[in-house]
Design a protein that fits this description.
Blueprint (H helix, E strand, L loop, with lengths): L2 H4 L19 H8 L3 E5 L3 H12 L3 E5 L3 H4 L8 E2 L3 H5 L4 E4 L4 H11 L8 E4 L5 H13 L3 E4 L2 E2 L2 H5 L3 E5 L6 H11 E6 L8 H29 L4 H8 L7 H11 L10 H17 L5 H18 L19
Parallel strand pairs: 1-2, 1-4, 2-3, 4-5, 5-6, 8-9
Antiparallel strand pairs: 7-8
């Protein structure tokens, strides 16, 4: 990117309230305030919670979402809402992306490109898959961005509490700039290498999510079978209580179904289906057949097609029933 393009600024900053501050370098900004200017692109379940926690930590936060109405509630927490990705990343120290998938992230960063400054840290937290991360890292290289592959482990509640686990990979030099971001959104950071392009963090995230999806699908199937056989689910819970087959996750997810608390979702069916397909593809690309992940993907997709895409992923329970039956 040419120097003139890198330094280009929009003639107007429509939508901002208050005076526009002059540009500070990262070093100057940290020396003066100890805080950062962070741009959050994507304010869904996770992105909105991360933006709030960054603002509460004292950082200047600018957020953008393709559907602006979903981002507007963040203004109550002091977050500035931008009209475009380019406006959001103007003069940012750190850009954090939390969008649906790799292609959506790449499209958004292309829109932001005219306002990106070489040397800006890019914390890429979307679960984009191994190939997706490689494509995003290539974009970062073309624009002189310092790339961090940094998906997170956790759902709505830990995200809102700032207790996510950040899985990160990226250069050692520059980590002091992204560490305050990770500290604001997470309880701990697990580093997985110094080259984000190798997707070390995403690889670990896919392994972890394969387990989450398997347990979620199994919980839904156990509930569906208990219904079909006329078994009280509590009898099953009592049977495994306190033993090696018992687990808090089973009970928490089952309660969402039994108590009809599938919205708002902790992690939505539609997103889980996308992640499941990334897991299956990663396995196939590396010579491993993942039958359980394949089945989980099919269940999530069937539940989504049945109208449950925006419900908690345990709503894959409904995929066990014929659409015409009473579930």
């Amino acid at each position: 990117m040419s120097a003139s393009r890198a330094g280009r600024r929009p003639a107007e900053r429509a939508g901002w309230s208050g005076a526009v501050r002059p540009h500070r370098t990262t070093e100057e900004g940290e020396a003066m305030t100890g805080k950062l200017t962070v741009s959050v692109l994507g304010t869904g379940i996770m992105g909105a919670a991360m933006a709030r926690n960054l603002a509460r930590a004292g950082h200047t936060v600018r957020a953008w979402n393709r559907t602006r109405a979903k981002a507007e509630p963040l203004t109550a927490d002091g977050v500035r809402i931008a009209d475009s990705p380019a406006q959001a990343v103007q003069d940012a120290d750190v850009v954090l992306t939390m969008l649906h998938d790799g292609p959506a992230t790449l499209d958004t960063m292309r829109e932001a490109a005219p306002a990106l400054r070489p040397g800006t840290a890019w914390v890429q937290s979307t679960t984009a898959g191994i190939e997706g991360v490689a494509e995003l890292a290539a974009f970062a290289g073309e624009h002189g961005l310092v790339f961090y592959d940094a998906p997170v482990l956790g759902t709505r509640e830990p995200a809102e509490a700032g207790k996510l686990t950040v899985l990160a990979a990226g250069p050692t030099e520059g980590r002091d700039r992204v560490t305050p971001v990770f500290d604001a959104v997470g309880a701990r950071t697990v580093w997985n290498g110094e080259d984000g392009a190798l997707a070390g963090a995403t690889r670990l995230k896919l392994v972890a999510n394969s387990w989450v999806l398997a347990v979620t699908a199994a919980a839904g199937e156990a509930l569906a079978l208990s219904k079909a056989l006329g078994v009280d689910p509590q009898g099953f819970f009592d049977l495994v209580a306190g033993g090696p087959l018992d687990m808090g996750y089973l009970r928490a997810k089952s309660d969402l179904v039994l108590e009809d608390r599938l919205t708002p979702p902790q992690f939505a069916v539609g997103t889980a289906a996308k992640d499941a397909r990334l897991i299956v593809r990663a396995g196939l690309d590396h010579g491993v057949r993942l039958d359980v992940a394949e089945a989980a993907a099919a269940r999530m997709e069937r539940a989504a097609a049945g109208g449950h895409a925006d419900e908690d992923m345990v709503a894959a329970y409904f995929a066990s029933f014929d659409e015409k039956s009473d579930s």
